[in-house]
Amino acid sequence: MTTPLQILVPLAVADANITASNVALETAWTAGTYTIGDQRRVDERLFEVSAASTTEEPSDTATDWFDAGPANRYAAFDRQLGIDKYRVVETKTSNADSITYTIEALTRIGGLAMFGLQAASISIVATVDTTGDAANISYTMQDATDYGGSLWRWMFLPATFERKYINFAVNIPAGASIDITITNTGDTAKVGTIALGIVSQFGTVGTSTGKKLLNRSFKKTSGTLTSLLQRTSSSLVSYNVTLQNYEGDAFWRLVEDIQGIGAVFVASDLYPEYSIYGTLSSANPTTAGVGISKAIIEAEEL
Amino acid sequence: MADFANLVLGVDTSGLKRGERALNDTTRAGGRTERAVKGTAQGFDRAGRSAAMATPKVAGFGSATNVTRGMAIAATRALTGMVIGLGAIIATSAGLSKFVSATVTADASQAQLGAAILSTGGSANRTIDQLNQHAAALQDVTNFGDETTNAMQGLLLTFTQIQGGTFDRATVAVLDVATAMGTDLNAAALQVGKALNDPVLGMTALSRSGIQFTESQKDAVKAMVATNDILGAQNLILNELERQFGGSAIAARDTLGGALTSLGNAWGDLFEISSEGSAALKAAVESLIVTISDPKFIASIQAIGVAMFGMAEVAMKALSGLVGVFDLLADNADILVISIGVLAVTKLPALAAMAISTTGWLIGMTGAMTAASVAAGVLAVTMNLIPFVAVVTGVTLLYRAYRDLGDTTGVTAAVTDTLSGSVDALNVALDTYSSSRSEPARQAAIDSAKAMEADAAATLANVSAKLAFLQVQADSNALFAETANQPGGLIYDLKLQVAEAERQLENARRTMQGLVRDAAEVNDEAGDLPPIIRAATIEASGLAGQMGAAARNALSFVQNLGNANISGLRAEVASLRGGGSDRDAFEASIRGSDAFQLALTGPVGLAETAIAGLNEELDAFDLRAERAALNADRLGSSVGGVGGAASATADALQDQISALEDAADPVRVYTRELAKLDELKLLGLSDGAYAAAVEELRDQLKDATPEVGKFTSMFKDGMGDAIDYMVDGFKDGFRGLLDILKSTIMQAIKFAIANPIKIALGIGGGAAGAAAGGGGGLLSGAMSSLIGGFGESAAIGGGIGATLGSLAGGTGLLGGAGSVLAGLGTGGLSGGVAAIGSAISGVGAAATAGTGMIGALGAAAGAIALPLLAVLAVVSFFKTKTKLIDQGIRATIDMESAMFESFKEIEKSRFWGLSKKRSTSYTAISGEDAAPFETAVFGIQESVIGAMDSLGLSIDALDGFTHEFKVSLKGLDDAAKEAAVLDALQGLGDAMADNILGLSDFALAGEASYATLTRLSASLATVNDAFRDLGFAAFNVSLAGADAAAQFAGLFGSLDNFTASTAAYYDQFYTNDEKLANATARLGENLAALGVDFIPATNKAFRDLVDTAMIGGDSDLAANLIMLAPAFDAVTDAANTLSDALMAAVNEDAFATGVDFRRGLSRASNGIEYTPQQSQAELMAELRSQNALMQSTLEIIANSSTQTAENTDYSNALTLDALV
Fold this sequence. Notes:
Chain A is 6% helix and 47% strand. Chain A has helices spanning 151-156, 245-257; strands at residues 5-10, 18-21, 34-35, 39-42, 45-49, 53-54, 65-70, 93-103, 111-115, 121-127, 135-140, 165-167, 177-191, 193-202, 204-205, 210-214, 218-222, 225-229, 234-244, 262-266, 276-283, 286-289, 292-301. Chain A contains two helices and 23 strands. Helices cover 79% and strands 3% of the residues of chain B. A four-stranded antiparallel beta sheet of chain B has the order 3-2-1-4, with helices on one face. The chains are: A mainly beta, B mainly alpha.
């Protein structure tokens, strides 16, 4: 594994950037009386009434509403920013048959990644002057059915498809119009995260790079009943990176920049399991020789 | 495919023949053991020698294989041939081994089958032959060899319930299941065997394995098992298995892989010798065992072993190399043709040379290898194939290198282009920075340099990698070496690119260092700048101030000078210079002086001296006048200059002021400019131009609005502060009034409102609450107080009733009355009135405190008794010192008014007592003096009306009511007077109550009407109020309902006991949120009564409410709200406690998702409980436990109804299983 560690910091994609989409918006909040359980949208977020009845305006500080997560259209671009979102991170944008976005007014994009996909194919068309002149990518999701060591198993199991797509070889200029289409005809198309941004790369990823599961579910016993409280697990990837001296400071700047936000970490195409959308958990470069530092960088998958 | 199979079979047949021959030979040798031993030993000796001879040559071959990597690959082919040669050497042994292995396997499976049949007593009704035939038949149509099937059959035989035809079906089913489920045969046999051996349990096991059965199937199987129809159950299961998996094994066979497997099975069978056939071999082997114990034999074997291991090592390496070659060929089969074509066109000469070279080398190697080993006789043939393989391999490698080179070169070029672009971008950024030297431009340049650095690094990495790759190619291949270091050669170009990338990388770093240095310098300078700037600013500020002051001073100076000084000076100069009058006067004064005259008239010379002195003085005078004129001129000039400068400065300042005012007041600018436009319009400005200019002005005004907003905001803030200040002052003043108000009515209303709410909350409930409520029934007292406190007078009668009751009992009141009366006696009227006044207050307080039971508490009764004592005190007003026959009070009362009169009956006797005359006179008591009577009478009237209202009775019954009483007080002591007055008032209450139709029906024995009325009223109010909190249905508001309430309360012994018991019950057995809800409802009603239609959410909101009322001047509302504060505080405290408890109950572990958790938290903060939906697992666990309970219950029912448990209905259980 001699490839560099590549990190994509997603650009913020807000309502103003999405000029068109086939994902319907939830009903926006207007002044009035709402009862418990009612949900209304304010900008990119959904709020739910938690009082018996209220005329309060929903906000982060409202007492009668709580933030129930991103609206469907914006779930794919939810960067999990903010204070203590109580693990509302399993959000996905979904729509029947396909999901389309037209995104504009972003800065230059050197890489894009999608996670949590449920699609048969995806398409990214970036346009500056003529359609697709900046990027024109079509990709058919590959069959990723679990082989499990048995040909029969593979043959008899229904086909499943890849759940992520990473392409760090694009160069879409600032201000380009980007059309994203996620197709799953006849079924529901879903995408958990769409990350667009600049790719930074550092050092070389060495062996001993590893990944471990962080289980969140737990066994619960109440009286004579025992059950498993299921929660989505995550994983922790440790990248073993060798940094040259001239990369050290730049690397650390990026570390500071991506703290507390989701970013895409890619080690090598040869080891797809280490390419994740996660948040930086730790980074500890230590000197290893003249002009060389070794760093263990840990990222927790979101 | 057929050809391939035939080919393999043909080869195998020959092997078989060789094997048979070898066996025959061995059999024959077995008959001649000793000779065979010798022969074998000699044979191995020879073999050992041959091997020893071959070893060094093989080693030489090994070293030769290291000549080149490509050649080594080719050499492996030779070793393949060598292996084949070795195979030929030991063909007999190998063939024998195969036969032996296959036969041993077959024997083992047969032995297992036989053992299974014996141990199960032949329960399956199948013989070994039958099983073998079936296994053989299955081998023909499936991928499972007969030995494998035999082994599985052995396992299946252990399930003794599987018999006959079912056994055969089960055998096939096992093969199908194993194939379809991807499990091994034994596991499938265990599953199917268990299912057929015990269908009911087995089906469950199959379900867990993913083999599903419908409910009806499960029911059917249970039914069959219950009737001992095991075969039927087995058939059902087999049918289902065949339906789901039938044909899987055969289908698997019907593929290429299956065919190959089948071929392998058949191939294995070829080597299975019948037991008769193997008997001779067995004998020979037995003799061989003896033979191999011979030391010579062992030595021979070891010798040949060394040689074989040496060869085998080489062979293994060769084989591993071959694997790679074959992989390579297989992977690139599709491109070989293309690559050869391409190379033929492009690099044919070099390729041909290399091929020829390779071929020549290989030929040489062939010769060497030919002599290498005796066993390598076949090597030459093998080597004939090697050139082709080597050429193909070489071509493939070359093509791949060529292709990769093209790809990476393209990437490198793209990367280099990117670098070129970033260099350009950096140059542009540096130009910008060098021209502007601004910080943003520097940052942009740094960013650009970083980008260039990254691009340069990427280029360097890419090109370096490519260079390394090419260098390897150049080192190993002349094709690349030729052009490696020549201009135009790939490596040459790449090296140039590397150099360029390194150079640009260095440039980028230096640029960034320079920029950083620039930044450092700027920072240093900037570090020095602030003090300078600050000093300059201060200086400038001071200067500006000084200039301003100077300008103002100058202006003032100029004005003053202009107005006064200069003109004054000029006037003085003029006077000095002018008509000379002053000078003349001066001269005349000198001349007229005595000294001058003396000098003139004195000796000669003296006059001249005097005149000379006069002239000198006059000259000096003139000189001063000249100087004064000169100075005046100079001053005038200076003043003019200063004035001009000051004027200019003042104008400039005025301009600045105007500009600032313009900025501060855009409306002024707008107005002014608009006026100008208007002027221009009058002068002929077109409408369009005018409109455009006005629009522009509006835009400017709009842009300037924030400034206006700031001013407005400042003004508002200022005004707000002022208002706050005023309000604070008002509040302070009002607090004094409020304190007074609070002191007068706080006790009553606070008690009235807070108490039921506190009770509703369970705070201070129980007996203590009952006592606090005045002893007249906890809740009813509170309720009536509550209503009374807000002027609705619903149950005032309770209070009066208690009062009368207490007075009737005469407990502890006479002393008080006596003292009051005594006060009257000594202090006179005013003291008595004062006492009455305070007593009246007591009446009000007692009335609002409210009690429900006659004779309940002395304290409450005492409080209410005071006004009545005061009434008695007034009676003393009528004492007279004259002799009275009688005197007292007469009252005439109706529902509108009451008239009180004093009366006296006087007996007049005439002297000697001969005549007596009695007369009675009535005198109206003044309003002031009658007030206590009126209060008492109206109190009783209101109590009756209130009681009737609380019982739902119409007061129409009192229409036209009139009553008169006359109380005679003469000769009575104080107690008797008191009793007389109270009797009269009691009579009033009874007279009013007598008008209520049907009241007498509910009277207790000996109970007066008024007592009945107040008893019923208090009971109904108390019980219904308690019921409200307890959530019970209230008694009807009627006499009958009140009677029922009274009887219910009577079950507790008394209304007091009822109140205490229900309060304790409520306190202990009702939840906090129930209490909170009740208290909140009461608070809401109280607030609603004040016109506040909501309950403030927080203490702050409550305070805002009070503040708003105060500011709005609604002091009544404010006061009432403040009096509600304790109740509100109690409610909010309870609400907070409840909310805290709810919040504490929201445990993250109870929620499966973040949204659920947030929902729980948010709702808890609003006092709403949220229980997340149970997880599927929890539900299922619960269902299972319920299911077990149900089954148990069903079995008990079945047993008790003489049915067997097996016959009970399992459908529910199965339903649940299906859910799982």
